[in-house]
Amino acid sequence: MNILDQWPERWPLQPVPRAAWAEQQPTYPEAEPRIIRAALARAERRSGGNWYVFAGSRQVRADRPLGFHVAGTELVAWRDRSGLLQVGPGACPHLGAPLSEAAVHCGALVCRWHGMRLGERGRPGWKPLPSHDDGVLAWVRLDTAGDEQPLDEPVIAARPVARRSIDAVMTATGVCEPADVVANRLDPWHGSWFHPYSFTRLRVLETPPVDGAGPVEDRYLVEVTFRVAGRLGVPVLAEFTCPEARTVLMRIVSGEGAGSVVETHATPVGSTADGRPLTQVVEAVVATSGRTGFLLARNAATLLRPAMARVARRLWRDDLAYAERRYAVRTGQHARGARRP
């Protein structure tokens, strides 16, 4: 007798039926484009207050600056002597030197060209920008890029408490717009077809309405099994929502790891040399569990974070291809054979 036939139902890992990829139930009849379009349109109307995620909190250090771009604007981030996040323009106001190559001394940037010191107080021609560190992700408010009503703080969905969770952050960049990344996440039906190495037995139980007057909670409720190893997986019930225009939140509502979240943030970066848009995906996985073993695993969080990021990066290798193709098709560039930079 196969040991899987006597597998206890109370265990978090459950057997996954052996089935060929091509023998799955097709999901295209349910994956109606109008459902995705309507949910995306409503998400785009939700204000983020001109706040943009640009990195994981751990990527911004006190010993060297981090250079990055948001919507074509060159920026630099670092930490002051108190460890607080600081963000400012990425070019020195003197002669335009790259501050991503500056030194950090006593909590301020020191330009390597002529020694100009730039800190939280700024100086003529150079002013720090509003920034926020939520403990997992680093944000900047760039009012010159967004047309939303500025908010004092970014829109951040509830997460598991830090002392009972492990977080990891993954970043990737693709040739598309933020809407293409969000649309990818608002299509849960592609999961077990496009990512068979990670998902199986996926069933969408609830979808957002196609039409809705006034505020509508665009929630997808999805039953899915996350593959772990071989024929074993973890069945869960997950919901997908959009707290603001550039964010999709997946939360496990029941099953192993209930309360865990995956935040997918889409940030416009700039353009390629031929004018196509670049979007950065910053994805935060915040995992939690009430099991004793998980609390012990938190002691090895430093070792677990790279593994968690690798899993997310593998998924986004495929999902960025989806988002890039969506952008190419809707702009007609697929007919011209557009290539990645």
TrEMBL record:
Gene3D superfamilies: Rieske [2Fe-2S] iron-sulphur domain (2.102.10.10). Keywords: 2Fe-2S, Iron, Iron-sulfur, Metal-binding, Oxidoreductase. GO terms for molecular function: 2 iron, 2 sulfur cluster binding; metal ion binding; monooxygenase activity; oxidoreductase activity, acting on paired donors, with incorporation or reduction of molecular oxygen. InterPro entries: Cholesterol_7-desaturase (IPR050584), DUF5914 (IPR045612), Rieske_2Fe-2S (IPR017941), Rieske_2Fe-2S_sf (IPR036922). This is Rieske (2Fe-2S) protein. Residues 51-140 form the Rieske domain. It holds the Pfam family Rieske. It comes from Saccharopolyspora aridisoli. It comes from the Bacteria.
